[in-house]
Fold:
Amino acid sequence: MKPASLITRKTVQRLHCCYFILLCLALAVSHVQAEVAVPPLKRHVTDLTATLSAQEVASLEQRLAAFESTGGSQIAVLMIPTTQPEAIEQYAMRVAETWKPGRKGIDDGVLLLIAKNDRALRIEVGYGLEGAITDAAAKRIIAEIITPLFKQGHFGTGIQAGLEAVMRLIQGEALPPPQAKPSANTPSDLDNFLSILIFSLLLGRVLQVFLGRLAGSGVTGVGLGFVGWLISSSVMMAIIIAIVAFVLNLFLHANPGIYRAGRGWSGHDRYRGGFGGGGFGGGGFGGGGASGRW
Structure:
């Protein structure tokens, strides 16, 4: 028969082992619970609580899109039920780092996060706007403008009023103007380049019938290079177009698949609009801003 002390010692060791396993499981569960999913970015305003009406979302979206197009700064609004068990500050940083509102290198983005069931909200400010929207200014906007309206149940009005105050502060900051984005109706240099090359294949084939393969390719290259210079006003671009057109017509003129491939192509497919589930402009955040409750 084993001594009682030995049995007790083994029992204690087993209990310690069980406690350690239970602690590991508890930590693992808490870690999983902490990872509240960041929703995909599809527009400036995301309401996962069905609090805002379609008209309110459309109005806010139109206002923020217009502000971005005129000033360049990007503001995002996210309304969710809760951030628990994470603090709203931690979750806001995860959203900001995932969505990246603001222009890269300028860091002029702002995130307004509202956790409705927690009765909490936060204004997260990008690096480039921390001088314009100080922590104290963000706190005043929350306490004096947004939360009084939230307490009355006017969420759409509160968000609108808070955003207008934020935008006024941003407008007082000297920021680089927004860069013009390519329009779906405006061909880019690449569109022009490819269109010229496709046309050169058709023109070169006709000229080769009358002038021969070498002479026809040469005339096509020179002619298309001149057209490229007129369009781009770049001598380098004209030389590149001339060389590429000459080589293509000299060696690839007999491949009919090239002409068939060229007919259905449209360079405008690259500009589909929207966010496509990705980020904004790549803005950086360092934790500036303020939180509040109502």
Q: What stands out?
A: The chain is about 55% helix and 10% strand.
